[in-house]
Amino acid sequence: MQLRDRMKIKIEKIAFGGEGVGRIDNFVVFVPFTAPDDELEIEITQSKKKFARGKVLKIIKASPLRVKPLCNYYAKCGGCCYQHISYDQQLEIKKRQVEEAFIKIGRIGMPPVLPVVASRSAYHYRGKAQCHQIMMSSGLKTGFLDTSGGSVVDIERCEIMDETINEKIGRLRKNPLTRSKKTDTRLTVWSNLPGEDTTPKGPIRRVVKGKEFMVPFDGFFQNNLFLTDALVDEVCRTALSRRLNSVIDVYCGCGLFSVFLAPFVQEVLGIELNRKAVKFAQNNAEKEHLANVKFVCGDAGEELLKGNLLPAGKPVDLLILDPPRAGCTQPVLKAVAGLQPLRIIYISCNPVTQARDVQYLNESGGYKLLSLQPFDMFPQTQHIEVVALLERA
Fold first, then answer.
1. What is the DSSP string of 36-88?
2. Predicted confidence band at 139 (pLDDT cuts at 50, 70, 90)?
3. What tens digit of pLDDT does each residue of 278-300 get?
4. Phi/psi of residue 98, each to 5°?
5. Local confidence band at 4 (pLDDT 50, 70, 90 cut-offs)
6. What is the mean predicted confidence (pLDDT) over 157-180?
7. 236 labelled catalytic
8. pTM of whole model > 0.90?
9. Cα separation of 248 and 278, whole Å?
10. Edge-to-edge strand order for the sheet containing 128-136?
11. What is the overall mean pLDDT for the chain?
12. Measured between alpha carbons, how far is 163 from 205 in angstroms, rounded to an integer?
């Protein structure tokens, strides 16, 4: 199989990452922006020993799962990869991808994956955008990276962003922050709450289940404006299905889960590396008059290894992990296995690294995976949030 070869293929499924998978003479070929049962003419764009990649030249027979994408920049902008697939099918695809990750990487024969919780809105759900602004010889570009990740797609609006973000992007296009040619300026844009007009770079206010959380402008917060309440409900329901005395919330950010669990337990300890986030977490807890919550600023692995997080001899009833996309570091996993909490709730936006870490906790810590609850926090994209529950055997 050579570059620029033109071939016919039928797409069998969608792989993790969003590309369609088909076979030509039993050789695997990945083709982006395709749907299961598409019959296509493609051109080979990359050829490796074990697989190839292609691009669609012609749809010979369209999959019945196809729908018309809403975005004018779709297949050029690199933000979305599923807009051409019906939303119900997106949920099924993501469920299968979670299952495959835990079978292949987590080495779990029959992973306990529940049906995906859908977002109330499949568009205009994002409360935060990371944009790029660059001055080219052809003029100013404000938007997102293209599918190659090598250049910026100039956009007027993004269909998965909250409308207040689109309004702010429009203002940035008229009043650019960059004047230097070919200097890529990265822009963080948060959505406004109804009737709100946030000041640039100021603290961000989010409301979850009636509670107000202040977040650093450069901090992290769950991005789906319609599904965060349900995610918190799931974590609390899972956590409180048994009596709890002590909770350690690792990678706690601004204290979202800590604040909701604190009224029902004796003590909560949050660990977070970002100093600003720790300060905001403390303020968020104080605002709710929670005296049993403590937040520590430090590296998660180092803090867990100290061994004096809780009074001597007191077991950790529950440990919550909510790491970045790259998953937990090896020191964190070793520390968690050594600490031996009775249960672990592991929240992740990357089931591949989550499956890897769960496999380690299974083999090194003796933990059994009880459930995997996916949440579609990122409709139209390849990403999926998963809440895993583990219990010490």
1. TT-EEEEEEEEE-SSEEEEEEEEEEE--TTB---S-TTBTTBSS-S-TTB-HH
2. confident
3. 999 999 999 999 999 999 999 99
4. -65, -45
5. confident
6. 89
7. no
8. yes
9. 14
10. 152-154, 139-145, 128-136, 185-190
11. 94
12. 17
**276 CB contacts (<8 Å, ≥6 apart)?**
216, 218, 219
Cβ contact 363:111 at 8 Å: no
Pull the structure tokens for residue 198: 């946030």
- Residues 186-209 have pLDDT tens digits of 999 999 988 776 656 789 999 999
CA distance linking residue 225 with residue 299, whole number of Å: 29
Catalytic residue among 80, 81, 158, 349: 349
Structure tokens given for 84: 């051409």
Burial 40-78 (b: 16+ CB within 10 A, else e): bebebeebeeeebbbebeeeeeebebbeebebebbbbbb
Q: Is the dihedral of CA 283, 284, 289, 290 positive or negative?
A: negative
* Residue 203 exposed, middle or buried by CB count within 10 Å (0-12, 13-18, 19+): middle
CA pair distance 267, 277, nearest whole angstrom: 20
Token digits of residue 310: 């809780």
Tallying the residues shown for the chain, one arrives at 393
Closest to 119 (Cα-Cα) out of 374, 324, 389, 382: 374
pLDDT band at 183 (very low <50, low <70, confident <90, very high): confident
d(CA 269, CA 343): 15
